[in-house]
């Protein structure tokens, strides 16, 4: 006589099982987290075309690169201040305060823009800080909600929310930027930030109730001790240092690639206006419209990859191989651009690179912290996601400065430098993947014993 295994999952959880493994009771929280990051990324991609239109309209592609260096200087003061807030405020109060501050900033930017004040430089710097604090804070929250085995399965669903939010945000910006102009998009971004804060609170309440209902279970991890040096933690832990250097190179390559694209787009828009082929649009509107469509293409492809490809790669190849896929794509893309540095080729290369980055690579890079300790997830991850990632921007700005003022490099030359950098990035990705494979079993065993 045979017995059938009873599946106590809900219909929704069985449906989600088509994309990744979902256990009973995991569906609602995973979808709430997906909705949370959906709203964050939607807000970000509504605001990104505004950033591009302002910085390229009031300034240039070179100015855009140089501002990244100033972001690092600001972060040297902002990140420690944020760390003090983490030590003093309860988790949800911290998230609510930070969300309210950023939403208020968007209202202030709207009022300044309506008054005709130049906001391009300040807004560009603000977006970099916003991207650090809101997005990184969310993934730290998600890492705290899930264990390593849960995260490796359910980050696929959470990452889908990020990919979908990016698609919807870019599409909304594409549809609204011409009839409404860029200023009203600032208010829309603020409203989305408030909405995602409400969802975060809902996830927190649900998880607190779920943990309280457990008859027996592990105690939640203690908060990190105040005053711990995040940078020392990174430099003293080989695994974390490898991740930090890998992400620094990733951002160096990606930001230089954005400069290559931005310089060509700016040149094309200027020529279109001068030749009378702009259809009545200003240079800023042409640039904003291009970037809205560009972000839409990136994020539609990223959405497809997240939904149908990422879980299969992680399941069958593992995290160690998955972390190497983006640098392999970038290596091929920039080698092609060395020989074909035209707008369509640059566009295709950046769409493929960024769609993979925002889907597969973004999911996997957050999985890399799952076997880490609680303190490493919150303290060291913030240092890596802020200082080391932004140092990639600084190195890119330095490359742009040297390349344009001393070496007179054209897009073809910058693509060649990027191809060389990607080779080093690929080696670091291989070492990170190998370290993850060696580290994870020991951490899992230690957790089980504890």
Brief rundown of the structure:
With 450 residues, the protein is mostly helical.
Main traits of this protein?
450 residues, mainly alpha, 16 helices, 83% helix, disordered C terminus
Description:
With 450 residues, the protein is mostly helical. The chain has 16 helices and no strands. It is globular and about 70 Å long.
Portion in helices: over 70%
Separate helix tally? 16
Given as residue ranges, the uncertain stretches (5+ residues, pLDDT < 50) are 216-222, 441-450
What string, H for helix and E for strand, traces the elements in order?
HHHHHHHHHHHHHHHH
Distance between the termini: 40 Å
How are the elements arranged and paired?
Layout: H1 11-16, H2 27-58, H3 61-88, H4 91-114, H5 120-145, H6 148-180, H7 183-213, H8 230-236, H9 238-274, H10 283-308, H11 310-316, H12 319-322, H13 325-339, H14 343-367, H15 374-405, H16 411-449
Helix pairs in contact: 2-5, 2-6, 2-7, 2-10, 3-5, 3-9, 3-15, 4-5, 4-7, 5-15, 6-10, 6-14, 8-9, 8-15, 9-10, 9-14, 9-15, 9-16, 10-14, 13-14, 13-16
